[in-house]
C-alpha cells in the first residue's frame, strides 16, 4: 500500500474577515432559519437541489466512507405515495406509540398526523444511511457522519433562500419500498425543500432556546 498523500489547506473564503466577525455573521444568517410545514408549490430547479446536496456531501465522515445516499423526489405520484406511507406511521405514532409526555411536549408545536406538505413542497429529499459502502466495505460512525451531513444540508438550504423540514416518521422503511432502495440503506431523514407559502407561519414555541450559558461551558471540570 502506498503512503498517503497530503495537500495544502485551501485558503479561507475571506481572509480579511476576523474569525469572531465571521462566526457572528454565520450565526446571524442561521438565526433566521426555520423549520417549515407551510410550503409553496413554486418550482425549485434540479440544479439547486444538486448544489445543496453537493454541500451536504462535503461533510466529514468516519474514515471518509461517506455513508449516505440522497434521493431527490419531484414526481407527484411518488410524493403522494410517500405522504400516504408517512401518514400511516404518524397515525400509529399519535394514536398508540407515543407516550403521554411525548404528546404533551409536541402540543405547543401544533403537529398532527396530517402531512400535506409532503405533496405541496416541490422536492422531497430522502436521506439514507449506508450500512455498507457501494463496494460492500465497512463504514464507520454512520449515524454521526450522516447527522453532520444533514446539518450541512440544512445550512445549504437556508443559504439558498429556501426552507426545509426534518421530517422523521418512524419507522421509515416504507421509503425503501417506494424508492426501491436496498436493505443496506436505512432511511435517516425525509426533508421537504422549497419556498415558504405566502402565509407561512411557524410555532412560537419552536423559537425558544435554552439560556446560552446552559449551552456552552468553557473549561468544564478544569482546575
What does this entry look like structurally?
α2 packs across α6. Strands 1-2-4-3 form a 4-stranded antiparallel β-sheet. It has helices at 19-30, 46-56, 76-97, 100-106, 117-120, 142-159, 174-179, 212-215, and strands spanning 68-73, 123-130, 163-164, 185-194. The chain has a domain at 48-197: 3-Layer(aba) Sandwich (NADH Oxidase). The chain is α+β, with helices and mostly antiparallel strands and 223 residues long. The model has no long low-confidence stretch (mean pLDDT 95).
List the helices and strands and how they pair.
Layout: H1 19-30, H2 46-56, E1 68-73, H3 76-97, H4 100-106, H5 117-120, E2 123-130, H6 142-159, E3 163-164, H7 174-179, E4 185-194, H8 212-215
Antiparallel strand pairs: 1-2, 2-4, 3-4
Helix pairs in contact: 2-6
Amino acid at each position: 500500500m502506498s503512503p498517503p498523500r497530503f495537500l495544502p489547506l485551501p485558503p479561507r473564503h475571506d481572509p480579511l474577515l476576523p474569525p469572531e466577525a465571521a462566526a457572528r455573521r454565520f450565526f446571524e444568517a442561521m438565526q433566521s432559519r426555520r423549520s417549515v410545514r407551510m410550503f409553496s408549490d413554486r418550482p425549485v430547479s434540479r440544479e439547486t437541489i444538486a448544489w445543496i446536496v453537493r454541500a451536504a456531501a462535503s461533510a466529514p465522515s468516519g474514515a471518509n466512507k461517506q455513508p449516505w445516499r440522497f434521493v431527490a423526489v419531484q414526481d407527484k405520484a411518488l410524493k403522494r405515495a410517500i405522504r400516504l406511507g408517512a401518514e400511516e406511521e404518524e397515525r400509529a405514532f399519535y394514536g398508540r406509540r407515543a407516550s403521554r409526555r411525548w404528546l404533551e411536549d409536541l402540543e405547543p408545536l401544533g403537529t398532527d398526523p396530517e402531512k400535506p406538505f409532503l405533496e405541496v413542497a416541490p422536492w422531497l429529499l430522502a436521506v439514507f444511511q449506508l450500512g455498507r459502502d457501494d463496494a460492500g466495505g465497512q463504514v464507520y460512525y454512520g449515524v454521526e457522519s450522516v447527522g453532520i451531513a444533514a446539518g450541512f444540508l440544512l445550512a445549504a438550504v437556508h443559504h439558498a433562500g429556501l426552507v426545509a423540514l426534518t421530517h422523521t416518521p418512524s419507522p421509515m422503511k416504507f421509503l425503501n419500498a417506494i424508492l426501491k432502495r436496498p436493505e443496506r440503506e436505512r432511511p435517516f431523514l425525509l426533508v421537504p425543500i422549497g419556498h415558504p407559502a405566502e402565509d407561512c407561519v411557524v410555532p412560537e414555541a419552536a423559537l425558544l432556546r435554552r439560556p446560552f450559558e446552559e449551552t456552552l461551558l468553557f473549561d468544564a471540570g478544569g482546575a
